[in-house]
Amino acid sequence: MPEKSARARRPGPEVEAALADAAPTTSSTPVTTPSTAGEPGPGTRAGVRSVGRAVRQASLRDQNLSLALRHVLESDRPLSRADIAAATGLARATVSGLVDQLIAADLLVELEPQAAQRAGRPAVPLAVARGTVAGIGMEVNVDYLGVRALDLAGRVLTERIELGDFRDSDPVVVLDRLAHIAGRVIANLSADGVRVAGTALALPGLVDRVTGPLRVAPNLGWRDVDVVALLSAHPVLAGFPPRLANEANLAARAEADVRRQAGVRPSFMYISGEVGIGGAIVLDGEIFPGRHGWSGEIGHTVVDAFRAPDGEPGRLPGVSTLEDFAGQDALMRGAGLPLAAPLSALVERAREGDAAALASLHRGGTALGVAVANVVSVVDVGLVVLGGTFGEVYPFVREAVEAQLERCVIFAPWSPVEVSVARSGEFPAMTGGALAVLRLVVADPLAWGGAGGAGGGGESVPSSSAFPSA
User: Fold this and answer.
1) Under 8 Å CB-to-CB from 278, ≥6 apart: which residues?
2) Confidence bin at 166 (pLDDT 50/70/90)
């Protein structure tokens, strides 16, 4: 199968910005505790209280380490120790100690000192270390497998994409191929001295919580697959068992991080178009997962409850879903193109003014607009982001989507819903997976070793409930 790879590639400012809110949502307020100097030892009842207090102090230190690291990550300019102290309210001596630990853990680096504007020592700006710790995002989709590694600075360190047709495929065979691709990526990182924090896998279907199983992926033909067990059986991934998430949720994670500006965390509906259609709801910068992590399955919403398009049976008895009108196969079929043809063929025909191509895209855009209007009316978001195939055909479906949002959303006359193309680049679900892993690093910095932590040596991240449902 064709394969492409890249190493140490900078993905541009949009993905550079994707780590801006990489840490899980935690308080931005520093935590302090009284000194325990001179208290009794652990052999007394007071000593037991002292041990408990010491444990709490360690926890508070970890929270403040995370706070300091996040301030450097989120800043649009290099910060000094004094800047962090001013922003957090922590004492300068405390911040200096925290920063020293983060530098020892190879998570922060010092840049060249800047000339002092006033009398005193020059400020030493800080930056996130590059190429020391990586999160790995993997993806299985209908027509490709992929693995991408990002570092804390947002750089793509290495990636591999393998094209293929995985409809009605054997999950054992496909996941074995994915494990071999991941093995090559991990080997490249290890050769460069990069510590792997963990892996996350994007799947086009219903994932039951973080560890699985995958309940159903209709376009792959998979049902009740223990994905984590299959991948963990591979020697390379045994130490890096993946966390699982829906493809659209992880793509939305990457999009949300790109769109975070000036501390404002966006709310929007993300639509991922492929052969199937996925969706995710983002509220204040965080994915709304639902009870099982199954929210956003907009492709399976009913668009026509009485007939299927062009007389073909729908996915549900007697009804037609959004995918029957606006999935990639439906768009290609409506334009009179072979299903195996690339999407670029449809785009090219539309640009040339081909009537069948334009009609197919308009029909798909109209159905998409109706389905999205229902979601928008329920969750009250003001932005719809079109990604995947919809990003590629955006110029030809935008007006149809907007027309239905204006017609069907009750609050549209007072608060129009904006439609935008995704900004998170190619293969955003892999980026989102890597970012989700790196959020764990930021949440518990010293677990990632170097000279200052307990981890290191390529050890995997322990299973943690801190991993977002996205």
Assistant:
1) 204, 246, 247, 248, 249, 251, 271, 272, 296, 297, 298, 299
2) very high
